[in-house]
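Sample entry as discussed:
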Amino acid sequence: MQTVELKYPEYPFTPVLGWSISRHEVFDKCKRQYFYQYYSKHVRDVPHYKMAKLKDLTAAPLEIGNAVHDCMEALLNRLTKSDSGIDEEKFFKFADDKLKEYFSKKTFIEIYYKQAESLDINAASEKVRVCLDNFINGPCYSWLYMKAMTNRTGWMIEPAGFGETRLDGMKAYCKMDFLFPVDSGVYILDWKTGAKDRAKHAAQLMGYAVAASSNFSIPWNKIFPKIVYLYPQYDELEITFCESELTGFFQTIREQTEAMYSYCRDAGQNIPIDISEFAPSPSPYLCKNCKFQELCSCAQAGTCA
């Protein structure tokens, strides 16, 4: 295969919403959370500064994942310049500092909603270390050294932007962690630090594959996507698919996109219908982890204004 430039194409701005795994997941689980997350500027009874504050809330598992991703990005960028061994003491110190930075500068759901008096940063740091240690001592790292280092100039690591693409002509977002050419194909790796969700992650990999094919003009059967699970132990998820499966995948994306369109008063401008049509889906787990739970409670009490 000829060398390809792994660079996302640029698309002119359009206001129409774009499909993504994460967007549809929120839409599917709770329509009210979906409204608050994606249409916050249309919330009339809550000050804009309040909505911005709630949207910026984070959670400990999310920041653990962010720290691991940042460390993986730094590690891979280092490998593009040097193939010398890792100074693990310095690497783990870098990881600790990154995590402490996040924990000191951000507001956490657990604290904001008084679910905990404090965050266990030592436990969080240990999880980050386990993730990174599992990678360093896992088969993927060894394989990168043996197979991928010869073409380091072709690596694309944590590309900027949101990964806008087109799937069968539909606007979508598929941002990939790491793409690199090996032999006659292109590999895609995505790091996971949380629970395994094989069905969701397989769909994510399918999206990555077809997006890479569309963006970089690579035959779909020359693209090899893989989830790399880093916690609690190292594991991988690879998918294989035939061309006929793409039709079903594109149909699913189209149906999910049209379902989200149906909650728009003007789909072309991405203007939603009234918030009252976005029914909440209360559940102990969803509500506990929702950044906007305060608004649902306030709405019920009539005290949000």
DSSP finds twelve helices and nine strands in the chain. The longest helix spans residues 60-79. Confidence is low (pLDDT under 50) at residues 301-305. The first strand starts at residue 156 and ends at 157.
